[in-house]
Structures are given as C-alpha cells and as structure tokens.
Amino acid sequence: KRVAILISGGGSNMVSLAESMTGDHPARPVLVLANDPAAGGLAKAAAMGIPTAAVDHKPFGKDRAAFEDALQAKLEEAQPDILCLAGFMRILTPGFIAKWEGRMLNIHPSLLPKYKGLHTHARALEAGDTEHGCSVHEVTAELDDGPILGQARVPVLPGDTADMLAARVLPMEHKLYPAVLRNFAAGAREPIFIS
Ligand code: GRF
User: Which residues are annotated as site, described as Raises pKa of active site His (predicted)?
Assistant: First the structure.
C-alpha cells in the first residue's frame, strides 16, 4: 500500500509512521504533503528520503475547495492508497473527504468522542478527567467523528498542566498511529486499545 502523510507542523507523528513502514510492513510512505511550505516536518521527511510537497493554504483565503484541488493534484501525482492526517490542522470539506472516505485516517489527541476540536488537553483538565489519551479514526465529513480504529490511554496526574498532559499523550500517539496503520493497511478494522 502507498501512504501519503499530511502535516502542518513538526511532523513527529509523520516520522513515527514513516519509520514504522519497513520490512514486511504492507505499506510504504510515498509522499509527505504540508499546507505550510515552512512546516518543519518537510525537512525531516526529505532527510528520510520521502518525496515532499507543500501547498500553502494562505493564498487561497476562504476558498477551501480551490486549496483542496491543489492538494488533490499533488496527491494524484503520488497515487496513494491511504492518506494519514498527522498533525494536519486544516478542516477538509465533505467534497474532498468524499474522494478519500474509507482510505483516510486521522489522529486526534483525546479519547473520542470526548473533546472533538481544539484544546483537548486543557478541556480534559477542566473537566477533572482522571484519564485522557489519543484516538485514531477514519475521517468522515463530520469533524473528529469517524469510526474509531484505535485509542491509547494515559493517566491525568495531580498538578498536570495542559503542556504536561500533551507531553504524556504525544509518545502514545507515536505508538498508536503506526500500530493502527499497519492493521489498516493489512485490511484489518478491529480497533486497537493500548495504555
Ligand atoms: C500534536 O498536538 C498532536 O497531539 C496532534 O497534532 C500536533 C502536532 O503533531 N496530533 P505532530 O508532531 O506535527 O505530528
């Protein structure tokens, strides 16, 4: 399977995914695509020998469809079978998602369906949760809402700040996403739960 990974920033999840696709793994990374030409993950991908591309979303202003047409053009060059959104911070329209539904994954830093959207760690602390974590799900038109393919749990500890909690969740993302992708690329859909 050919995997394209979409990023917006440092791409630590992209690195974990790319590093996992070796040996008898059924998938290989064929493109790392960013919505910001300055995304730090692009240099990391290039250093790993993975083809990269960037489509800056800013010149497109509010025209999401035009931005997505440019993304789609880059994707069609790489011909991926699976898209992995990894720290990708743009909301995709139903039109784009419809092209990839069933073949597009996302990682979200909460135990979905709790805390869809942004500031998930602060919201978990605010709610007094004693557990938190991350989820990998299939991307559907509704934000952070598709079928759950895996979750990883971490404890919330007394005195935790949002940054401390985020720092406890991120390494679990780096374990969960590669495990889910390996399953998904092999055709399995049973959700994975780690803690
Ligand atoms: C992190 O906050 C992570 O929880 C979320 O996206 C952000 C950046 O991830 N998935 P990455 O380092 O760019 O993969």
Answer: 144
Q: Please tell me if the CB atom of residue 12 comes closer than 6 angstroms to any atom of ligand 1.
A: yes
Cβ atoms 2, 78 nearer than 8 A:
yes
7 CB under 6 A from ligand 1? yes
Please tell me the distance from the alpha carbon of residue 43 to that of residue 54, in angstroms, as a whole number.
Answer: 11
Nearest atom in ligand 1 to the alpha carbon of residue 16 is 14
- CA gap 110, 114 in Å, rounded: 7
Whether a cis peptide bond, with omega within 30° of 0, leads into 147 is no
- Give the residue numbers annotated as catalytic, written as ranges: 108
Q: Is 5 in the pocket of ligand 1 (CB under 6 A)?
A: no
- The vertex-22 CA angle with 20 and 24, nearest 5°, equals 115
pLDDT at site 35: 98
**ipTM of this predicted complex?**
0.92
**β-pair type (28-34, 82-85):** unpaired
